[in-house]
Each structure stands twice: as structure tokens, then as C-alpha cells.
Amino acid sequence: xxxxxxxxxxxxxxxxxxxxxxxxxxxxxxxxxxxxxxxxxxxxxxxxxxxxxxxxxxxxxxxxxxxxxxxxxxxxxxxxxxxxxxxxxxxxxxxxxxxxxxxxxxxxxxxxxxxxxxxxxxxxxxxxxxxxxxxxxxxxxxxxxxxxxxxxxxxxxxxxxxxxxxxxxxxxxxxxxxxxxxxxxxxxxxxxxxxxxxxxxxxxxxxxxxxxxxxxxxxxxxxxxxxxxxxxxxxxxxxxxxxxxxxxxxxxxxxxxxxxxxxxxxxxxxxxxxxxxxxxxxxxxxxxxxxxxxxxxxxxxxxxxxxxxxxxxxxxxxxxxxxxxxxxxxxxxxxxxxxxxxxxxxxxxxxxxxxxxxxxxxxxxxxx
Length: 368
Fold this sequence. Notes:
By secondary structure, the protein is α/β, with parallel strands linked by helices. The chain folds into 3 domains: 132 residues, HypD, alpha/beta domain 1 (Rossmann fold, 3-Layer(aba) Sandwich), CATH 3.40.50.11750; 152 residues, Rossmann fold (3-Layer(aba) Sandwich); 52 residues, no CATH class. The chain is 41% helix and 19% strand. The protein contains 17 helices and 11 strands. α2 packs parallel to α16. The chain is globular.
């Protein structure tokens, strides 16, 4: 397709790889934040094309993967209630909770619906006033505006039977946690293009100044990611630490101000637990008190859930770029897309799922 193929052009890819080979003189560890970027890297083998001095590690940029286990258990409990129509995106169905998942609840007769937009959930609430319609509002800053719009509209219409189980995450606090860690190896970041489309660059400029680390906002096609890598290496090789924007066709420095205002109107910042990582301060969004009648947590009294991750799942280390999926003994054996131990093997953006799909078990282990 025009305007897509040009970002997958073999000649451009080869030229960028050759440029990187001439450019790099030292070893560098780079992290792409977004799971969509990870899948592009795995699908096209971009990491295999890079000079051996450049190591790519994968960050916590998959919202499905970092949704807390307790929140999944809450969703499962809600979906099993006879008066509830539970509405979610399709990639949440097989995310494992402590003992079950939403797919099994639906198979057992629970009213679990899959939608592509929160406005579809709102439509269900209008059409079925006798049902309690609960929308699973997850995601990073990318999906927050659409979810905020649905919740604001529900408030304006007075839809008493519509609520949201909110589990929104904010990316910059997670990056801050990585940079503050004594085990951090990452020297430069490919920032998430979709998040920056909404939020702009200012938060990443703060992180870059504070920690002396370069960021390049990258897109999601092979040329995007190789170009972003080359821009990062150019900064590192010359001792610079700035925020640059490779994804100029979508991202501006200020971001989408209207979307930011909408997020601020409906949500407020809060501490949030990330699956496999733990609580990160000021890293989440929750509904403001004015919309409390649409807050599932308040309506259904869901405060007493506690769950522990499977001990053998290494998702925490993978999410922080400390390990890759083949380092996990369960990868491809006790943990597969059909029977996952953790969310990284389920989601369409999960790192473990990317390795399993594009590299396979034997090939991945051979590259450890």
C-alpha cells in the first residue's frame, strides 16, 4: 500500500543498516518502549540486522501485559455476575487471572462481549437498561481519550447502568522507575509513537534532562525503527542526550491538547500497580469523584482482591529489559499462547508472544 510500503522499502532498510554499521564505535543498549514496536522488530528480524554492538531490549509498553493480576481477577468476578454484561477488547479474553480468565467465564455462560470501541459499550448500556454494563477501560495514554469521552457522555446522559473498571497506566513514570533502578542497563530509548501522539514530548524532555539519557520518538514500521535507532546511536556516539522526533508524520511536541484536556477532565493521576513490577507512584489514572457513579470499583465494592504472580513467570525481568523470553525456563513449554502463565504470552503486543510467534522456541533458545 502507498504510504506504508515506503516504510518497508528494502533499499532504504539496507541503507540504514549500512549507515549504522559505519556510525557505531561502541556497545550500546537501547530499549523500545512499545509492544507494537517489539512485534515489528521480531517480525522483520530488525535486531538481527543491526551491528553486533547494538543490543535491543524490550520495555513495559504493553498495557494488557501490565494490567495487575488483581484487576484481572476483579474483571473475572464481575463477568461471572448474572446481572452484569462485561465489555472488553478481545486481547483481554485469555489473559490469565489467578484461577481463570474471561474466555472461560464466557464459555461457562457469562455475558462477556468483545468490542472495538468504548462507544460500543455505551450503546449496549442504552439498549439494555436492565443490565449493568461494565466496560474494561485499560490502556496507556493512547486509549484514555476515547475512554474518557465515553465516560463523559455516560455522565451527560445519566446512564446509571454504565460503569468502567479503570486500569489506565502512564508511561513516563515507568521509564523513571527503570532509570532509577541500580540494575538498569538501558542507555537510550525509542519512545512510544502512539502515546506521544496524544501527550507530546514534554514529559520525555524532563526525563532526558534529569537522567542524561537520549530519547527518540519512533514509529512502527521497519524504516521508522531503524531510523530511530540511528538517531539514538548518533546522540550516544557524540555524547548528546536530547529528545528527537522520528515519527513526525503523527507526533508534535505539544501533542493533542484537546485529548489531554479531555483526559484531565475525566481522570486524575494516582498510584498504580503494574503486573510483574509492582506499585509505581503517579503512574495511573482513575475516575474523578464527579463521575463516581460510573466507577465500577465503587459500585461493586472491589477493594479486597489480592493475588500473587506465578513464581516461575519471569515477566517482571522481561518488562524491565533485564531478560528476554528465552531466558525463562517455562517459555514455549509450560507457557504458550494457548496456556499462558503470564500476560506477556497472551497479548498481541506481548514480548513473549512476539518471540514465540516469529522466532519459535528452538530458534529463540538458540539465540540466548
